[in-house]
């Protein structure tokens, strides 16, 4: 299905005067509000192909109906999101779930929807049908060189698919690790993994980036071979200038100070990108900003500060991706909420008075520093985010429009009630 421009126009016309009042007030109160709107227009967040279907847990999966049955329908779903919010102009593919049957046709379809291909993702955390050797005891860390080679070959194959589609980065998340003490020699596992990553790195096209994602626990519960940002940084440093650390918000131990991690990785020029989600316990994959929006704001506060210090382009110099998959919401509504939460946090971070904050920090004025941060955080920036959408021809209230025109009902009519998208 496609959303007609007149449907968006009608929706916006109805909401326009109330919206305009709020924007005017914000622009009057904040001298930089107009600059914030322009930055919001440029800021795009990639949608992961695996989040378009209903996710599951190890206990079960409850399909929502009308889920995309193939890559074409996944691209069409991201096209719907992008049409509604003009902020989701890229899709992140997972190989082998999303191998195109025709690269030429898939590229043309993406262009039709105004989409680009973001980072491609490899998968050595599962065994695929027909696969020769098993990843039960890891992939790049494996004691058997043949298993390691199979994982290396897969990653190089993923790069080839990405290159054909016009992507320019690969995200490697390894589930490698151990479940019990004594199972693994940590040093040897690290060395083997590094050697495998080096072979993959050697296959990167010159303009590509490699993102090394870390995770504290699960599926291995005693040790993870890329378990935290320090280990990821170690791999990325040893690999070279094209390798970076990728921060997934759900991949930390509880109470980790993610904003500090972000700040230091940026300082070292080794922050590559993000996987956004939210969590209460661990890798919960909940909607971005649903549990702890203040933390999301604090992370963006460090991102804006650190990127400006290195004169980086907010929109293009880091990879911005969502990584979520859960089982009770309509996946498309969830993604609209996630993108909105990211843009709200970004806008609030842009409103922080940097000069005043710096002055308060230099004077050890702790109270003032908190006031400055929370002044920005407690500003309702939603009209600015909506104005950025309006400027780009998208809907003032994407979720409301999604419901008003019954997008899900249309998708169920087209695809059926009992469809299953490949994913987690
Ligand atoms: Mn992730």
Describe this structure in words.
The protein is of the alpha/beta class and 424 residues long. The chain contains 15 helices and 13 strands. It has helices at residues 5-29, 33-42, 71-85, 103-112, 145-165, 186-202, 229-239, 258-267, 293-309, 331-351, 354-362, 366-377, 382-391, 398-404, 407-415; strands at residues 47-48, 56-57, 60-61, 90-92, 116-117, 120-121, 169-173, 177-178, 209-213, 223-224, 243-248, 271-276, 319-322. The structure holds manganese (II) ion. Residues 173, 213, 248, 275, 323 line the site of manganese (II) ion. Manganese (II) ion is lined by residues 173, 213, 248, 275, 323.
Strand order of the largest sheet: 6-7-9-11-12-13
N- and C-termini, Cα separation: 25 Å
Unreliable runs, pLDDT <50, ≥5 residues?
none
Biggest sheet layout: 6 strands, parallel
Please tally the helical runs, counting DSSP H or I stretches of 4 or more residues.
15
Based on secondary structure, the structural category is alpha/beta
Gross morphology: globular
Helix content: 40-55%
Order of helices and strands: HHEEEHEHEEHEEHEEHEHEHEHHHHHH
Query: What is the averaged pLDDT score?
Result: 96
Strand content: 5-15%
Bound molecules: manganese (II) ion
Number of strands: 13
Q: Give the C-alpha Rg.
A: 22 Å
